[in-house]
Amino acid sequence: MSSLLINDSNGVRTIRFNRPDKRNAIDLEMYKQLTEYLIQGEADNEIRVFLFTGTDDCFTSGNDIADFIKNSDLKNDHPAVRFLYCLLELKKPIVAAVSGAAVGIGTTMLLHCDLVYAAPSAKFQLPFVNLALVPEAAASLLLPELVGHQKSAELLLLGEAFSAEQAHNFGLVNQVIGEKELHQFSLKRAEQLAAQPADAVQATRMLMRPNKSRIQHQMHQELEIFSECLKSEEAKKRFKTFLS
C-alpha cells in the first residue's frame, strides 16, 4: 500500500497521507515523493491547486521519529528540508483538509497553505520544545505574526494540543466542517479556486507574501538550530522516551 495517494481531477492534485499504521507519520521516502509530486504539479498546466489531506482519523502525526534520528543531517539535500523549501517556493495555491491529529509538520505546513478546513476531531500540536527541539517551516516567525507573541509562546514553548475551534479562532483554520462533509467541502473549494484565472490567482498569492526572503531566512536559521538540538543529550533522551 502506498503511503501517499495522488489524484488529479478538475485542476486539483489531491495528496493524501495514507500510512494509518504509523498515524501517517512522514518518513524520508514520503518527503521525497511529496516534493516530487509538488514539483510535477507545479510544472503541469492542468494542475492549478494542491489539496493536502489525510485519513479520517489522522492528518499526520508529524515526522517519523525513528527514521529522522537515523538521517539527522539537515543539509539542503535532506528530503524534509527540500520539502519545506518547496512549500515556500510553490506558485500555485494550497488547500488543506484536516481531521484527527495534526502534529509538528502537520501543523506548521498549514502556515504555508492558503485555505485550511478542519473537522471537529482535528487536534493540532507543536511539541518541538517538548522533544528538546525548535520549530521548523518558519513557524517561529509565521505563528507570532498570525496569533501574536503571547499565544505563540503558549503554543510553541508549552507544546500543548489545541482544538479545531481554537485553531479557527487563531486564524489558522478558515472553517470547521463536519467530519463527513470535510473532504467534499474542501475539494469543492479547491475546484472553485482552480476555476479562477490561474495567472491572477498566482500573482495575488505572490503579492500576499511580500516577505518571502525573510521567511526563507527564518527557515534556514531554524534548521541550523534544529540540527544542533538533534545532537543534544536532552533530545536523545526525549526521543528514547518517546519511542519506548
Automatic annotation (TrEMBL):
<dbReference type="InterPro" id="IPR029045">
    <property type="entry name" value="ClpP/crotonase-like_dom_sf"/>
</dbReference>
<keyword id="KW-0576">Peroxisome</keyword>
<dbReference type="InterPro" id="IPR001753">
    <property type="entry name" value="Enoyl-CoA_hydra/iso"/>
</dbReference>
<keyword id="KW-0413">Isomerase</keyword>
<dbReference type="Pfam" id="PF00378">
    <property type="entry name" value="ECH_1"/>
</dbReference>
<dbReference type="InterPro" id="IPR051053">
    <property type="entry name" value="ECH/Chromodomain_protein"/>
</dbReference>
<protein>
    <submittedName>
        <fullName>Enoyl-CoA hydratase</fullName>
    </submittedName>
</protein>
<dbReference type="GO" id="GO:0004165">
    <property type="term" value="F:delta(3)-delta(2)-enoyl-CoA isomerase activity"/>
</dbReference>
